[in-house]
Protein 1
Amino acid sequence: RRRRKVLEKLKEAVDERKKLIATLRGKPWPMRKKLESQVFVEKYEGALGKGRGRRLYAYKVMMRKVRALAYFYAFFILCLKYSGHFGSSVASYFLFLRWMYGINMILFSLTFGLVMVPEALMARPYGSIPRKTVPREEQANAMDFAVLWDFGGYAKYSVLFYGYYNNQRAIGWLKFRMPLSYFLVGVGTVAYSYMVVIRTMARNAKEDGGGDDTSFNFSWKIFTSWDYLIGNTETADNKFASITTSFKEAIVEEQESRKDDNIHLTRFLRVLANFLVLCCLAGSGYLIYFVVRRSQKFALEGLDNYGWWERNEVNMVMSLLGMFCPMLFDVISTLENYHPRIALQWQLGRIFALFLGNLYTFIIALMDQINLKRAEEEKVKFNMTIWQANLYNGTLPENSTAIPIMVDPADVPRGPCWETMVGQEFVRLIISDTMTTYITLLIGDFLRAVLVRFLNHCWCWDLEYGFPSYSEFDVSGNVLGLIFNQGMIWMGAFYAPCLPALNLLRLHVSMYLQCWAVMCCNVPQERVFKASGSNNFYMAMLLVILFLSTLPAIYTIVSIPPSFDCGPFSGKSRMFDVIQETLETDFPAWFGKVFSYASNPGLVLPFLLLMVLAIYYLHSTSKTYKHANLELKKKLQALREKTVLSSDTARNKMSLQTPREKETELNAELCVIQCNTITIRYNTINKISAAYNSMLI
Amino acid sequence: MGATASKLPKDQLSEYQVTNLTGYIYLIELFSRAHKRFNELLEREDRQQIGGSRVPMNKILTLPELKSNPFRRRICQVFSTSDLRDGSLSFEDFLDLLSAFSDSATLEIKSHYAFRIFDFDDDGTLDTGDLEKLVNCLTGEMDNTRLTSEEMKQLINNILEESDIDKDGTVNLSEFQHVISRSPDFVSSFKIVL
C-alpha cells in the first residue's frame, strides 16, 4: 500500500510537470530548467508504463525531417545569413525568390510530366510526320549554333514548342489523351498559380492584424527600430544615422506644426513631374511599336540580309528600356519632394506602368504578326491542293485526306505555325531579358566595384564616397523584375511548354549570382524603407500581373482558330473544342447532355448574377466584422491598461516566482540531476554533430 | 546515468524539441554550427570539456553577428549565468541566446529578454537613466550623431507619456510588453541567425 502511495505521488508529480511542459514554450527560462522538466517526465513515465508517447514523438520528428529536407534548407539558410547582414529587407527578397522557385517547380513538373514526356515517349518519333520534321529548305543549317540559339532548326521541331505535338486523340498503350492533357495542363497551371497567390495573401493578411497603429510612435522607435540581423559595420552605421535622423524628425514634427509654405510651387512641380513621366511612357510605347513594325519589314525581306542587331532589335530595345527608364523616373522624382516611403510607392507604380505598357505593346505587335501568318496560311492551304494534284499527276482522288504515295515528310509544304512563332518570341524575350540582367549585374555591380576599389588610389576625388561609389542592392527593383518575368512565363507557357523549365534554370542561377553580388559588390541602402508595412503589396502586384498575363492567352485560345497542320489542336475550329470532343466520346451520353444544359446562357447569366450578389454580401459582412474588430480592440486596450495599473510590480515579481517555488519543491522529491549528466549528453552530442558535420561537408 | 548515456541520439535531441527549435535536420545542423562556433571561441585546452567551460565576454563580442550590435554587452550580461557577473557564457547560455533570438521564439520570450537587455541598471524597471543610455546606444558612438540634451529630454518625456500607464516615471515589464505586443516590426527584427 505504501508502494501505491509513492506511485500516486510520483504520478501527480509527473502530471504537474507535464502541465508545466505544455506551457514551457512560452516561458523565458534558461535551457537547463526546461531540460530538467522534460528529462524528469520521460524518466518516470517509463516507470509508469506509458511508452507510447515516445513512439509518436519519434514519428513526428521523422516527419519534420522530411519536411525540412524538402525546403532546401541549407541553401536557404546560407542566403538568409548572407543577406541578413544587410538587414531584413534584403533577406525578404531572397525569401520571395525562394517562394517563386517553389511555384515554378510545380509548374515545371506539370508541363514536363504531363505534356513533354508523354509526347516524347509515346507519340510518333521525330521525322515520321511533316510537323515533326525540319523542312527540306531548312535542313542545311538546322544544326548551326546560331540557329539553335535563336530557337529555330531542331529546337523548333521538338517537344519544346507547340508545333511539334500531334493531334492524335489517344497515344500509346495507355491511351493517353494528349490534346486534352495539353489543354488541361495549360488551364491547370494558371489555376494553381491563382490558388497559391491568393492563399499566400490570405495568410499574410491574417498575420498582419492591426499594424495600422500610431499611438506608440516614439516607444516603437526606441524599442523596436534596431534590426538584430545586421552583422556588418557599414549597415550598422547607416542604421545609426537613419535612427538619429528619424528621432530628430519626429521630435521636430512633434514640437511645431508644419507650416506648408510655397504649396503652390510644390503642386506645380508635382504636376510637371507627372507630365514628364507620362511623356516618357508614351515615348517608350511608341518606340517599341516602331521597332516591332521595322522587324516585320525585315522579316518580309528575309532575315539573312541583316546582322545580329536587326534580328534581335525588339528584345534588346525592350530590355534596355526596362533598364534605363526607371533611372529616369528616379531623377524626375527629385522634383516632387515627397516623403521617401510615398516616393518609393510612386516609383514602383511608374515602373509597373512602364513594364505593363511595354508588354502590351509587344503583344499588340505580336497580334499583327499572328494575323499575317494566318493570311499566309490561307495561301499555303491553297498551294497544298495544287501540290497534291501534281503528286497524282492530274487525277485528284475524291477523298483527299490520305496520301497513298509515299512522300518524305521533309518535302511536304508547310503552313506557318503561328503558335510556335508566339512561343519562340516569348522564349527569345525571356532569354534576352535574362542576359541583360546578368550583364547589368556584372558590369553595373562587379566591374564598377572593381574600378572604384582599384582606381581610387590614383583618382582626383574619392571614388568611394562621391560618384560613382559602390552600387546599392535595389530590393524593390529586383522584386518587380522577378514579378514581371513570372508574368511573361504565364503568358507564354501555353505555346512553349519549355518555358517553366527555362525559368527554373534562370531562377536557380539568379539565386546564386545575386547572393554572390550582394556579398561581394553591393553596399547596403542608405535609407531603408519598405514600400508598405506588409508583404501583401508585392503579392497584390503579382496577382494583378497574373490576371493581366493570362488575358492574352485566353483571348487567343477562344477567338483564333488553331493552325491546320501543327499542334495538338490542328483540325479543330477552336482550341477548346477538345473539351467538347472528350465529353462526347469518353463520357456517357447523359453527362454531355447535363453539360450542354449547364452551359446554356439562360443558366449561366443568373448564376453570374448570384455570384455578384454573394460577393457584395460577403464584402459588407467583412466590413461589419472589421468595424466590430476595431471596437473590440479598443475595449481590449482599455482593459489591458486597467490591468497594468491595478497590478503592482511586486505582484509581477511574485507571479514569476511561484513556478520556481513549486519547482524547487518537486526537485526536493526527485533525484537531483547532476551537471555531469548534461556534460555526458553534450559529449555524445559533440560526437553526433562532428559526424553530421563531416557528412554535410 | 549509465542508462542515459547509452540512449539513441534521436531521443536525446528530441528533448530539445521542447525548446522551440523545429525540424530534425535543422536542429542537428543548428547544433553543429552553434557547437562549432562556440568551440572556436574556447581556449584550446577547454575544447574537450565543452559542458563546463565558459567563454569570456570579450571573445563573445568578436562574433560577427554581435560585433555591430549596440546592445552586445547587455546581451552577454543578460544571458550569462556566471556567478562572477562578468558576462561570460557557457554553451548552455549560448544556446539560450540562440533560442531566444530564433525564429520560433514567442513574443512573450522575446519581450521578456528585450526588457532585461534594455534594463541597464538591472533594477527591474526602465527609468530615465536607462532610457537615456538606450537612446545613446541607438544613435551611435559618434559625437555628431548624438542628440542634444533638450532633444533627449523631449524624447524621454514623449516615451514616458506613451508607455508609462501608471505614471510612476518608469516603464515596468507589463507596460513594456503592452507596448511591444502592438508593434508589427518587433518579432521580425529581434532575430539573430547564426
Note: Chain B touches chain A through 94 residues (CB under 8 Å).
Protein 2
Amino acid sequence: MHGRRRVKPSAEVEKLRKEKEATKIKEYNDLVASCFEKRDKNEFDNDAFTITTKILSQNPDFYTIWNFRRSILLYGILKECSEQDKQQTLSTELGFLQELFQLNPKSYWIFNHRRWCLEEIPNPDWNMELKLIGKFLEMDARNFHAWDYRRYVTFQLSSTTKTSLTQTEFDFTTTKINQNFSNYSAWHQRSKLMPRLIKEQNLDEQEKETLVNKEFELVKAAFYTDPDDQSAWLYHWWLVGREIQHISLLGAYYNPKMRQVVLAFDDEIGMVIPFQVTKKIDDNSPSSYIEGMWRPAGGELKHDQLNIDRSYGFVWIFTFFDSVKDDFTELIVTVKPEFIVPSHSEVKLTRTMQRHCIINDNYNLENESSSSLSQSQDTLPIDTSERIKLLQREISMVRELLELEPDTNLLRELKYISGTNMEENSKIDDEVVTICDHLIKIDKLRTKRFEDLRSKAIFESATKSLVKLVSKELAYNDDTLQYQDSTFSLESKNLTIIPTPSILLYITKLNLSNNKLTSIQFLANLINLKEIDVSNNCITSISGVNRLRNLRYLKIQNNYIKNWEEVKNGFIGWQGVECNIYISENPLIENTNEIESLKIGWENEIKECGDQLKIIWK
Amino acid sequence: MGILNGPRRLEDLFVNTDAFPTESLSVQTKTERSVYKLFKAVRDEKSLNTIKLNRESHIEYISDGLKGLSKYLVVLDASKPWLCYWMLHSLDLLDYELSTGLIKRAISTISKLQNPTGGFCGGPGQISHVAVTYAAVNALATSGIKEAYDLIDRENLYKWFLKLKRDDGSFIMHEGGEVDVRGAYCVLSVATLTNLITPELTAGTAEWIKRCQNYDGGIGGVPGIEGHGGYAFCGLAAMEIMGKTDLLDIPLLLRWASSLQMQMEGGFQGRPNKLVDGCYSFWVGALFPLLEAILTKRQYEKDVANSEDTQCIYRPLFEREALQEYILIACQSPKGGLIDKPGRGADHYHTCYCLSGLSTSQHHVIYDFERAKGEDLDSGARSLLWEEEITNRVVVGDPDNLVKPTHPIHNVTLPNVRKMIEHFYGKREL
C-alpha cells in the first residue's frame, strides 16, 4: 500500500465485496460441517482427506482437523497398504506441509504434524529435512520454532546415521552469525553446541585453547562492530562463565564458659534443619548427640530446637542445654548443604559445602571438604587457572573498548567479569574500585549500587589476610580472649556496606569511622567486640548491639540519629555489661526536646535493663 | 521519568547506525525512526501531559468486533474463546460496563464449546485445547456472574488435565498436540481459579519448568531453547502458582527481563535483538510484579526471622512511564484498537495485551505478605493476596487514562479474580 493513494470504495464495490466475503465464509463453514459429519461417522476415506486439505489450506491452526487428518491416514488411507505406498502417501503429505509452511512459518500445528509424518514414514529422509529447515532459517533466522525443529532433525539424523553432527551444526551457527551477528538464536544454539564439541572431539589442552580463543575472536569482532549489541554480549557472558559461588564455613570454635559452639559462614544463611552436634567422650566410645539450641548471633533464641524458622545470620551459635555434661574430648558439628538456605539465589549450594567440622579437645577446627567443582553441561569445560587467564585477557579487551566508546554500558560488564574472579586478586579489587569511582560520577541513577559494589571490593581486599586467620584465630577459648585484643581498622574508605561481617568475628576493637554506613545491624554478628567506632557515618539508628556481651565502647558520634526511639531500640533486652555510648553530634543532640526525651527515656526505660550503660552526648 | 522527560535527549537514543548494517539493525533502525517521529511530535507540542487513551474509539472497535468478524479472521475459527476473552477483558479494563445481553451471549457461546470429556475447544465440534480452555475460563471469570462459573464441568476438566500430563511433569496442549510451557501455565491458572490444584496435578511440573531456564536467565518454551517473553511469563506465573519460584534463578531472570525494555521505544521486545511489540507490554511487563513480589518475600522472611522491623516493598523494577508512553503514543490505532508497532493494523489480541500492559504499568499490584502471615495457603488463597498499592499509581498523560488493575498471574481484573475464587473455594477471611 505504500505510496499508493487509497480511494474509498464506492457503495457498489463495498456491497460486492461483502457478498463475496459472505459466500466465502459460507463455503468454509459448509466444508467444516461436512468434515465433522465424516468424523462423527468414522469415515476415514479419500473424500474426508480432500476436505481436510481444503480446510487446512485456509486455516492451518485448526488443530481438530489435523487430528482427524491423522486418523484418516492411520485408520483409512495407510491401513493395509504396502510400505511403498505408505512412503509415497506420506511423502505427498510432507509436500503439502511444505506448501503450507510458505504462508505459515510459525504454526505450531504444521511442525507438530510434520514430526508425526516423519515418525510414520518407512524411510524418513532426514537430510532433506535438514536442508528444508536451513531454507526456513534463511527466510527468518530468528524463527524459534524452526530452531527447535532443527534440533529435533539433527538428533534424528545423527541417531540414524550414528554420526555426530555437532561440528556441522556448529559451523551452521557460524554461518548464521556471519550473516547477522545480532542473531541471538544462533548464539544461543552455539552455547549448547560448544561444550558438546569439546567433549566429543576429545581435544587436548592446546586444541581446546585454540578453539576457545577463536570463539573470543568471533564475539570480539561483533563488539567492535557494534559495542551496543545485546546478542554478542550475552554470548560473551556465557563464554566467560560464572563461577558458582560456594558458601563456606570460615571457622568454628567452642566457648567452654558460655557452653556454646560458634560457626561463622561467609554468607548470611538460614537453617532449614538444625545442624547435628555430637560429642565423643574418648577415642573408643561412639559419639552421642548433644541437646541444645541454635540461633543466629543477632536472632532470637528459639524454644523448640526443631523450629529454626528460617532465621538468617552469618554467625550461628549453638547453646548446650544445662543437662549436657562437659565430659567430651571431641565435638563434631555436621553441616550439610541441604540444611542451609543461602541469602540470595546467586549462591548455589553444591556438594562442596558438605563439611564436618570437628572440634577436638584443643578446640581446634578441622575441615574435611571435598572440593571438586561440579561441571554442568551448560558451561565451557575449562579449569580455574584457564578461566583466570581468560578473565584477565577479557578485562583488558573491555578496557580497550571502553576507551573507544566511553559512553556505553560496557563498564558494567567489566565490573561483572571482575566480580566472577574467584582468586582474591587485589589488583582486580583496585580496578573495580577505580571503575566504580568513575561510574558513580557518570551514572547517577545507579550510584548506590556502585557504592555498594565498591565497598565490597574494598572490604574484600582489606580483609583478605583475615580470612585465613579466622579459622586459626577462632581456635581460642574464651579465657584467652580476655587478654588478647585484635584490632582492625577500615576508616575513611567511603564504605556503604559491610558485605561479610563474619570475617571480622575475632576482632575485638573495630574502627569503621569516616565511612558512609547507614546501618550497624551487621554488628550483631560480631559477638567478640569490645570497642566499635562508627563515628562520622550516615547511621540513622542504633541496632545490632543489644546482644554484644563484651561491648565496652560504642562510638557513634556525628551520624544521622534524629530521635530517642532510634536510640532506644538498640538497647532493648540489653545483655552486655558496662558500656559507654558516645552519641554527640547527632541531629538528636541539636534538638532540646529530643534531648529531654532522651534523658527521661534513658533514666526510665534503659537504666532498668542495663544499669551499667552510660550514655555520653556532650 | 519516562523517555520524553528522561535524562537523555530523544535524538541520543537511537542505536548506533555507524555500525555494520545487519538485518537486525536495519529493521531496528526503521522501527526506532517511526516511534521517534511520534515521540518528537508530542515533545515539540509539549502535549505529553494531555495525551489521551482513546477509550471511546477502542470500545467502539471492540464492539464492532462483537458484531461479527471479517473473513480474514478465519484462522481464529479454532480460537473463539480467545476472541471472547480478548474482547471482554479489554472492555473490562476500559471500565466499560458489560451489558447483561452481551454477557449472556458470551456465556452461551462458550458453554457450547465445552466438551463432555473435559475442557473447552475453539469452535463447535472441535476437540479440547489447553490454551483455549484458559481463554474460556478467563472469559467466564471476566463475565463475573455465578451462572458462568457454574457451567464449568470441573470433574471432567480435572480428569482431562491429568490425561494431558506427561511423565516429566510437562503438559501437552491437546491430545496429539505439542508440549511447551504454555501448557503448564494455562492448566495451573485455570486449576487455581476453579480450585483444582492438587499435588497429583503439579507433581514434577516445577522441576520441568526449571529446566526451561537458560544461562542468560530467560525461560524458553521447552528445555534447551532460547528464552522468550511469552514463555518466560508462563513459566514464572506457573512457578508462582505452585509456590516454587525458589527453583528459578530470580535475579538472573530479572536481569534478562529488564534488558528487554527498549531505550528509545520504551516498550518491550520479546527476545534480545528483536523488535518492540505492544503485546509484550503484558507478557514481559507482568514479569515485574511477580519478580518484585518474590524479592519482597525473600526480604520479608529474612526480616521477620531476624525480628527486624523493615517495611521493604520492592518498587516497580521497570520504567513504567516509558512503557505507557509507548502504548499511548505509538500503539493506538486512529481507527480504534491497539497495535503491535506503528504502521501495523489493530487486532483484538494486541488490543487486549496492550491494555493489560498499560494496566500493569499504571498500577503497582503487590502481594500482601502481612495477610499471608507465613501460613501455608493454597494457590487460590494466594491469588487473593494480590492487591493494588493505591499510593503507587502512575498515570502518564490525561488522568482519565487510568484503566482497571489486572491480576499479574491470571490477567483478569482483580475484583473478577476474587469473585471467581470465592465462588469455588467458599467465602474466606483473606
Note: The two ends of chain A are 82 Å apart (CA to CA).
